[in-house]
Amino acid sequence: MGLDAVHLEDMLKVYYELYSPSEKFPIYLFLNEVQNVKDWDKWVRRVQADGRYRIYLTRSSSKLSSEIATSLRGRSVSYTGFSVQF
Q1: Is the pTM value of this prediction over 0.90?
Q2: Chain center to CA of 33
Q3: Largest CA distance in the chain
Q4: Contacts of range 67-74, beta carbons closer than 8 Å, 24 or more positions apart
Q5: Per-10-residue mean pLDDT for the chain, 86 residues long?
Q6: H helices of 1-86, where?
Q7: Rg (Cα) of the chain, in Å, rounded?
Q8: Are 68 and 76 in contact, with CB atoms under 8 Å apart?
């Protein structure tokens, strides 16, 4: 879709405009398939360094696990989840 880190930044700006969150509590960000966004890794590292955010990245492909860990340079913990369809 041609998304880049500017769109992620816009997402945060809109959140702050709509909800005016308190500085006392962390903000939880759940980003699915973020690896499809250009320069996502630089944005996530910058936002994470701020200290106000708890960031969770999800994806559907296990082969991307090492790519995400490499992009975040040791700032990640991986968990594997399974879904069962009947």
Answers
A1: no
A2: 9
A3: 44
A4: 67/35, 68/35, 68/41, 71/35, 71/40, 71/41, 72/41, 72/44, 72/45, 73/45
A5: 91 94 93 89 91 86 60 63 65
A6: 5-19, 40-50, 65-71
A7: 14
A8: yes
- Locate 34 and state its tokens: 């973020």
Q: Which residues pair with 55 in a beta bridge?
A: 29
Phi (first) and psi of residue 28, to 5 degrees: -95, 125
Burial label, 7 (beta-carbon count in 10 A; 0-12, 13-18, 19+): middle
**Residues contacting residue 76 through CB under 8 Å, at least 6 positions apart:** 57, 68, 69
CB 36 within 8 A of CB 3: yes
Both tokens of 55, joined, read 């960031």
Closest C-alpha to 7, from 35, 59, 33, 43: 43
